[in-house]
Amino acid sequence: MTGLQLGPFVFGADRVIAFIAALSFLTCLWLWNRLDRTRNLQGTAVIVGWLVAARAGFVISHWDVYAAHPLDISAVWQGGFLPAAGLAGVGVVIIFTVVRDRRTALPLMMATGVAALAAGITPHLLPAGGASNLPHMSFANIDRAQTLLPGDDARPLVVNLWATWCPPCRREMPMMMQVAKDTPDARIVFANQGETLTDVRRFLEVQNLKGDGVLLDPNMDLMRHFEALGLPTTLFFDADGNLTEAVTGEVSRAALTAGIQSTR
């Protein structure tokens, strides 16, 4: 999957792009300040403006989900930012800044342009992803019965790659199982990577989870096939088995719902 791995840490492509863009913006302003010491331009307000507006835009666009679970709004570590809304926020902050001091117009516009260029180039520099379709494979469920993927089920499919030792996996699984229960027109399975049936059953028992849709992939075949950088990784497939979206890291309820909609 596209993203970046630094030692034990894995970052999704969206987070890498956002970081590179912000770093480029701040670096450009820092260089300008070095060249022109008559004023000290600060880019913090612009960065905060993007974050607040992008988050607000995402929440508003998925308000049906957040209205039912308002505490999820604060879970910003799960992602959930709308870039277009963020750009609008940046524009508002820049306008207010320029109105107060017209001399800031040129450096702020240049820094914004550099950041946009960096955001556009970065995706092409990240490692290419793995396969884009789901292979026909068989996995055992927690009752030792074999389950085919994708099988004959005509519904869109979501495959969550997880492990019991993975904290984000443990956090998101109860929510994902509830969404699976509430979304009968989509199929959600949880393919455990590299662990034994005993480990998985113990985890489900401690977490008081039924284990519907849990599969065992002890050889991590799916992780290798899709070149997943880390866990959790959530893969969305349409009814024809084509990969429509992939999320590296913890997924929010809104992102999961949006991902399911993207498969239709």
Condensed summary:
This protein has 264 residues and is α+β, with helices and mostly antiparallel strands.
Question: Could you explain the architecture of this structure?
Answer:
Residues 110-264 form the Thioredoxin domain. This protein has 264 residues and is α+β, with helices and mostly antiparallel strands. The protein folds into two domains: 3-125, no CATH class; 137-262, Glutaredoxin (3-Layer(aba) Sandwich). The protein has nine helices and nine strands. It has helices at residues 13-35, 44-61, 63-68, 83-100, 105-125, 167-182, 197-207, 221-225, 253-262; strands at residues 3-6, 9-12, 137-141, 146-149, 157-162, 187-193, 214-217, 233-237, 243-248. Strands 4-3-7-6-5-8-9 form a seven-stranded mixed sheet. The protein has a two-stranded antiparallel sheet with strand order 1-2. It is elongated, with a radius of gyration of 21 Å. The mean pLDDT is 92.
Strand content is 15-25%
Number of domain modules: 2
Average pLDDT number: 92
Write out the CATH superfamily name of the largest domain: Glutaredoxin
Q: What's the CATH topology label of the largest domain? A: Glutaredoxin
CATH architecture of the largest domain: 3-Layer(aba) Sandwich
Number of helices: 9
Number of β-strand runs: 9
Order of SSEs, N→C?
EEHHHHHEEEHEHEHEEH
Q: Helix fraction?
A: 40-55%
Spatial arrangement of strands, main beta sheet:
4-3-7-6-5-8-9
GO cellular component, one term: plasma membrane
Keywords: Isomerase, Membrane, Redox-active center, Transmembrane, Transmembrane helix
Transmembrane segments: 12-32, 44-63, 75-99, 106-126
GO molecular function: antioxidant activity; disulfide oxidoreductase activity; isomerase activity; phosphatidylglycerol-prolipoprotein diacylglyceryl transferase activity
